[in-house]
Amino acid sequence: MRGLVALMRSPASVAAASSKSRRLTSTAISPSKPAPLSDPFEAAHVDLLLSPNSPFHRRTTILKTCTSTQVILRTQLPPAPAVLAAEVQTKGHGRPGKPWLSENPLGLWVSILLEVPSSQLPLLSLLASLAAADAVRALTQLEPALKWPNDLFLKNRKLAGVLVETISRLNQPPLALLGLGLNLHQQKADFPPELKDSAISLLQASRQRIPRSQMLAAFLENLTRRLDQPIPEAMEDWRQACFQLGRTLSIRVGTTILTGTAETLDDSGHLHLRLPDGALQKIASGETDFPA
Ligand code: BTN
To answer: What angle (nearest 5°) sits at the alpha carbon of residue 214, between those of residues 129 and 190?
Structure first.
């Protein structure tokens, strides 16, 4: 594969894209007969939709296919920030090491290589899930609920997941590799049997096809804003959007499963779980796959 820098778009292709940009509107779908899928996905379109001073301007590369955008960015290490999306991934992965089915061009599959202060790194997945929810709200008026630590839900089904990995560097803070998988155009038949009742796409939730370029640009704009927001404010937004607070949860931390009441999320991004014996556990990361 050619290097990421070589794949960046030329000014001529940006100009050509401006004549096509009118196509970047969402399409309402008739409930009975969805229109055939047409969702051109080009870096030049994304650039046109970003504000001119965006740190992500001219940083996007879109591949037709790859193994995993996380793996490609980690291997190629272009200068940060770098945005790599793929129409199709043959080996997408989620957390922790679970496969992420993305062998079709029906969602937004993107990774972003970022340099963030070490203090912000533990909060990055929370900030990114807020940014993804902001983008969904802006484009559809739907309000996703957040599941700790980094899933987006609509109608009690998973719409999107965020994955943060790190790349260590000598004498410098680690780089962050932020991955987002967001279901856009799938219909029930597009999900494998085991996900049909637990996953949802924006098409299913809103009857609208939101173009991938539009969703990616909205996500990048909101990510920029969330990374600049004072942390206590962002964490308050997160608490408001989370559907788990006050509920009984089972959380897997390593090989241990803890069950208790999710009391709050603190400004360090730790979930406070009240155990049946009254003890309070502050949990930095874990999996809440098992709502009790
Ligand atoms: C999760 O819910 O477990 C997180 C899923 C993250 C999937 C995205 S798709 C783009 C990027 N490439 C990958 O292989 N994974 C992330």
So the answer is: 75
Closest CA to 149 of 281, 271, 263, 240: 271
Tell me which residues have their CB closer than 6 angstroms to ligand 1.
68-70, 89, 92-95, 98, 100, 102, 109-111, 151, 161-163, 179-181
HSE-CB at 9 with a 13 A cutoff on CA atoms is: 24
Nearest Cα residue to 23 out of 214, 215, 220, 184: 214
Dist. CA 150–CA 234, nearest whole Å: 14
Residue by residue, DSSP assigns 177-227 as EEEEEEE-S--GGGS-GGGTTTB--HHHHHSEE--HHHHHHHHHHHHHHHH
Please tell me the distance between residue 140's alpha carbon and the centre of ligand 1 in angstroms: 22
Residue nearest to atom 11 of ligand 1 (CA): 179
Instruction: Report CA(32)–ligand 1 centroid distance (Å).
Output: 31
- 66's enclosing H/E stretch is strand 60-66
pLDDT of 24 higher than 90: no
For residues 136 and 184, give the distance between their C-alpha atoms in angstroms, rounded to a whole number: 10
The model's pLDDT over 205-233, given as tens digits with 9 standing for 90+, comes to 999 999 999 999 999 999 999 999 999 99
DSSP 64: E
Spatial contact of 263 and 252, defined as CB atoms under 8 Å apart: no
* Whole-structure pTM value: 0.88
Q: What count of other Cβ atoms lies within 10 Å of the Cβ of residue 58?
A: 15
Q: Are 31 and 206 in contact (CB under 8 A)?
A: no
Q: Is the pLDDT of residue 7 over 90?
A: no
8 A C-beta contact, residue 94 and residue 182: no
